[in-house]
């Protein structure tokens, strides 16, 4: 399972991400910072720079608990395709993530949906 190992803020809303397989990507995070949980990240540069890697989740997190799925970051998915299950690439990513989690003891379907930023099962976005 590939996860985020290091994060370093750069100019603008860019983050330099180093993954556990050695891949390094610089991503413009602004398109990912949608919704109320990301408001402090968007509106306060110091808060944006307070990003860190959560070793348990293997992804980036901010002090208010906002995070982005590590698979979304690694795959470099267009934020517009990271929506409730419409993109074939996104659906395949969800299935790979579920399979990896199941192989290591699993997490609940609802927890997976939460980590991916999807609404609870049975509710629309």
Give an overview of the whole structure:
This protein is an alpha+beta fold and 125 residues long. The mean pLDDT is 80. It has five helices and five strands. Helices cover 31% and strands 18% of the residues. The chain has helices at 39-43, 45-49, 70-75, 88-103, 109-115; strands spanning 4-9, 14-19, 24-28, 52-54, 59-61. It has one domain (4-115): NE0471-like N-terminal domain (NE0471 N-terminal domain-like, 2-Layer Sandwich), CATH 3.30.2020. It is globular, with a radius of gyration of 14 Å. The longest helix is centred in the C-terminal third of the chain and has 16 residues, at 88-103. The strands form two sheets. Strands 1-2-3 form a three-stranded antiparallel β-sheet. Strand 4 (52-54) and strand 5 form a beta hairpin. The protein starts with a strand and ends in a 10-residue tail after the last helix.
Helix content: 25-40%
**CATH class descriptor:** Alpha Beta
The CATH topology is: NE0471 N-terminal domain-like
The CATH homologous superfamily corresponds to NE0471-like N-terminal domain
Instruction: Quickly give the CATH architecture.
Output: 2-Layer Sandwich
Write down the overall geometry: globular
Short description:
By secondary structure, the chain is of the alpha+beta class.
List keywords for this structure.
two-stranded antiparallel ribbon; globular; 125 residues; 3-stranded antiparallel sheet; alpha+beta; NE0471 N-terminal domain-like; 31% helix
């Amino acid at each position: 399972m590939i996860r985020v190992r290091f994060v370093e803020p750069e100019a603008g809303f860019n983050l330099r991400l180093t993954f556990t397989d050695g891949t390094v990507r610089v991503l413009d995070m602004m398109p990912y910072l949608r919704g109320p949980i990301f408001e402090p990240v968007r509106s306060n540069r110091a808060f944006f720079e307070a990003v860190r890697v959560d070793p348990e989740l293997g992804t980036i997190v901010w002090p208010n608990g906002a995070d982005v799925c590590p698979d979304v970051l690694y795959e470099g998915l267009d934020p517009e395709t990271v929506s409730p299950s419409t993109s074939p690439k996104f659906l395949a990513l969800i299935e790979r993530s579920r399979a990896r989690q199941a192989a290591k003891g699993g997490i609940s379907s609802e927890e997976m949906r939460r980590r991916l930023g999807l609404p609870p099962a049975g509710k629309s976005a």
